[in-house]
């Protein structure tokens, strides 16, 4: 049964898209359509994808886009899916053989589940692999979404989850955000979609730590405020404001750590203040204290250095 619509947003992905499509070849029996959203590419991504799909006998359809936004690109495809299940993967990641079939099998074993999450492998530039097992997904509804936002359960990598089209409905990714748009999408979906997990890894997620951190260093205050505005809209799902404040603190702490590592101590201090004001679990309280101490030491060292130079 062709049960799955695969969505792939792509911007200048000519170097990787053929590999992503090839990784899906083993799942052809359950894939009804592959929707590639070619988002303002200038490197022939669509042509490379069409050639690869023809060789692999995958039912590819290219959707042209100019939104230059991964969330917006996914939204275009979400509005055009035909199959009962939706699987999303990025154009530089790889699906692992049997992953889709295992996700579908769990949905059949737990017919109430409208969202199935699998494990994934995280690979960095240095070829270091980390196995990420889903954990903590025991609740349903708002409780599950709240645990996700508060960091009490494993984050979902795009490409490790299968969701029903019925559950998605009109839910869409927030757009024009520099980060965390997928977290807000999953949280909104989890508020009403019963969830199941499998321990089998279903995809390999490629990570560039430098590129990931760069998102937090460009217009950090402006981007944080835009993200926070989108986060606070989750109150319409019934998620408590205290949970959203906790998420604000987690993201602010991450931004503070990036700026500290890059030597921008003033910006690190501002975001650390936001993190300190948010509700936190003990481990994050300790992290805040540690970075507060580090910043104090750095400031004292900087003052001493200036005094020595002027003496």
UniProtKB/TrEMBL annotation:
PANTHER family: GLYCOSYLTRANSFERASE (PTHR43685), GLYCOSYLTRANSFERASE 2-LIKE DOMAIN-CONTAINING PROTEIN (PTHR43685:SF2). Residues 5-132 form the Glycosyltransferase 2-like domain. The keyword Oxidoreductase does not apply. It comes from the Bacteria. Keywords: Transferase. Pfam families: Glycos_transf_2. This is Glycosyltransferase family 2 protein. InterPro entries: Glyco_trans_2-like (IPR001173), Glycosyltransf_2 (IPR050834), Nucleotide-diphossugar_trans (IPR029044). SUPFAM superfamilies: Nucleotide-diphospho-sugar transferases. GO terms for molecular function: transferase activity. The keyword DNA damage does not apply.
């Amino acid at each position: 049964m062709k049960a799955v619509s695969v969505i792939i947003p792509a911007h200048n992905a000519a170097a990787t898209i053929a590999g992503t499509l090839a990784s899906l070849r083993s799942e052809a029996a359950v894939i009804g359509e592959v929707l590639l959203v070619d988002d303002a590419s200038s490197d022939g991504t669509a042509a490379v994808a069409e050639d690869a799909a023809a060789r692999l006998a995958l039912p590819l359809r290219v959707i042209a886009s100019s939104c230059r936004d991964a969330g917006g690109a996914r939204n275009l495809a979400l509005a055009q899916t035909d199959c009962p299940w939706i699987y999303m993967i990025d154009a530089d990641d790889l699906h692992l053989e049997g992953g889709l079939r295992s996700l579908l099998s769990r949905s059949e074993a737990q017919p109430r589940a409208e969202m199935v999450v699998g494990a994934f492998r995280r690979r960095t530039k240095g070829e270091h692999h980390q196995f990420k097992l889903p954990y903590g997904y025991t609740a349903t509804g708002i409780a599950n979404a709240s645990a996700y936002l508060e960091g009490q359960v494993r984050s979902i990598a795009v490409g490790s989850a299968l969701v029903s089209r019925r559950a998605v409905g009109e839910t869409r990714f927030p757009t024009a955000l520099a980060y965390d748009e997928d977290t807000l999408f999953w949280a909104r979906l989890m508020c009403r979609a019963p969830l199941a997990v499998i321990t089998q890894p279903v995809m390999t997620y490629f990570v560039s730590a430098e590129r990931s951190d760069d998102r937090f260093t460009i217009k950090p205050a402006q981007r944080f405020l835009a993200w926070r505005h989108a986060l606070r809209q989750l109150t319409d799902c019934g998620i408590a404001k205290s949970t959203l404040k906790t998420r604000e603190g987690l993201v602010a702490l991450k931004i503070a750590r990036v700026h500290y590592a890059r030597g921008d101590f003033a910006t690190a201090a501002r975001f650390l203040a936001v993190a300190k004001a948010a509700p936190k679990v003990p481990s994050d309280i300790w992290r805040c204290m540690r970075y507060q101490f580090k910043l104090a030491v750095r400031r004292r060292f900087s003052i001493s250095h200036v005094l020595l130079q002027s003496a």
